[in-house]
Amino acid sequence: xxxxxxxxxxxxxxxxxxxxxxxxxxxxxxxxxxxxxxxxxxxxxxxxxxxxxxxxxxxxxxxxxxxxxxxxxxxxxxxxxxxxxxxxxxxxxxxxxxxxxxxxxxxxxxxxxxxxxxxxxxxxxxxxxxxxxxxxxxxxxxxxxxxxxxxxxxxxxxxxxxxxxxxxxxxxxxxxxxxxxx
Length: 182
What we know:
There is one protein chain. 21% of the residues lie in helices and 30% in strands. It is built from six helices and seven strands. The chain has helices at 7-12, 30-37, 49-55, 95-100, 134-141, 174-177; strands at residues 21-24, 42-46, 60-64, 81-87, 102-113, 144-154, 160-169. A hairpin with a 5-residue loop joins strand 6 and strand 7. The radius of gyration is 16 Å and the shape is globular.
């Protein structure tokens, strides 16, 4: 795995408002450290204790949680995080609760492998590959405003098919802002 910050995360991280950021499936903490460098406190979650030990640092609270274990429940309340960063990870049962944990005006930065990636190697299991437009569907279902979306081939750190989204949890629905005042 590359220790470089994802160009997608690096590009859109400055949009995250002040507050705490969740780095979900953080690995060794490359994105957690980047968020701290931007002035955020970070909760870094992973199931691997060795990875979390590498992720630990000033401004980073690590938490070893296996969110895929039978009976696992989402440990964070609604509206908690100013930003949520997820790269190279997909566990669909978490999506609704994860998105509910975004605070008003919170930013979701999500980037992972998509359908067709098997031609480049792993992951190849459809359970870990996004369907075409899946991130856009999540945004629509959960009231997120899409800032940017990409779906296609990347060459670095290795060739892969990925989807990426930057989306904001609107403080209030856009439709309401267009209603006439009384």
